[in-house]
Design brief:
The protein has helices spanning about 10-20, 25-30, 40-45, 65-70, 80-90, 125-135, 155-160, 165, 175-180, 220-225, 240-259, and strands spanning about 5, 30-35, 55, 75-80, 95-100, 115-120, 140-145, 170-175, 185-190, 195, 205-210, 225-230. By secondary structure, the protein is of the alpha/beta class. It folds into 2 domains: about 5-100, 60s Ribosomal Protein L30, Chain: A (2-Layer Sandwich), CATH 3.30.1330; about 115-259, Alpha/beta knot. Strands 8-7-6-11-9-12-10 form a 7-stranded parallel sheet. Strands 1-4-3-5-2 form a 5-stranded mixed sheet, with helices on both faces. The longest helix has 17 residues, at about 240-259. The radius of gyration is 20 Å and the shape is elongated. The protein starts with a strand and ends with a helix. One of its GO terms (biological process) is methylation. GO terms for molecular function: RNA binding; RNA methyltransferase activity. Keywords: Methyltransferase, Transferase.
């Protein structure tokens, strides 16, 4: 694969990549994003995606990319000085490899619904981790409210570690309205409720609803859910992190479905 060297911030390709790195609006309008690291690029290829542009930092050994580059059909390749590459990277210590890639739209799984519903999750790492948990548990769909962080941001993609490529996503949703239309059991994970989450039958069509890291779920969403339940905690701590709470809940559903 022949690489093109870019050394100027005024280069139109660099400007386009910079917008994708920084702007949710640019990503949404183009339906494109930046994948950071060899791991994410591998996961994207494994999911059937083909990147538009492969980006290498000058200090990164091109030989290490040979196997991945061979899997990229009709992909442009560019190399950037380390300083310019660092401007695109979502982390303080850049991986040395980026890819410009289109959003993937995995098909909705034909199975008993196991939906994770996320309201106003604003930390990209948390959001990515929650999508990763859903994908690992075999969730059939992730529903995201309008107040959630962009699931296709580079930082959320790092947190998801490939989840966005295999888990169907529905974003910008009015969660209360969605829950009112959902025919199965919807469970709002809420601290102040008396219902014991472990006492619920989670074997059928199910939507698990988790809320904002600090504020939790809104009253409207709690009212729209069919059940409001808490995860029992015997230790001397007030609450679980939103991502941890969802992980406990979704894998309890997996456990019940296996038995």
């Amino acid at each position: 694969m022949t690489e093109t060297a870019i050394t100027s911030r005024d280069n139109p390709i660099f400007k386009r990549l910079k917008k994708l790195a920084e702007s949710a609006r640019a990503r949404r309008e183009a339906r494109m994003t930046l994948l950071d690291s060899e791991h994410l690029l591998t996961a994207y290829l494994d999911a059937g995606g083909q990147p538009h542009t492969l980006v290498r930092a000058a200090s990164f050994d091109a030989g290490k990319l040979a196997a991945l580059a061979a899997r990229c059909q009709q992909t442009k390749a560019i190399v950037l000085p380390d300083a310019l590459f660092a401007e695109l990277s979502p982390v303080a210590t850049p991986s040395g490899v980026l890819a410009e890639a289109a959003w993937l739209n995995p098909p909705v799984i034909d199975a008993t619904p196991l939906v994770i519903v996320l309201e106003d999750i604003q930390d990209p790492g948390n959001l990515g981790a929650m999508l990763r948990t859903g994908a690992a548990a075999g969730a059939t769909l992730a529903v995201l409210s309008k107040g959630c962080h962009d699931p296709w941001s580079p930082k959320a993609l790092r947190g998801g570690q490939g989840a966005q490529f295999v888990l169907p996503l529905q974003g910008g949703v009015d969660v209360a309205a969605w829950l009112n239309a959902f025919a199965g059991l919807s469970v709002a994970l809420a601290l102040a409720e008396d219902s014991d989450f472990y006492a619920l039958d989670l074997g059928g069509s199910l939507a698990l609803v988790a809320g904002n890291e600090g504020a939790g779920l809104t009253a409207a969403v709690c009212e729209a859910a069919k059940v409001r339940a808490h995860i029992p905690m015997t230790g001397r701590i007030e609450s679980l992190n939103a991502s941890a709470a969802l992980a406990v809940a979704v894998f309890e559903a997996v456990r019940q479905r296996r038995t």
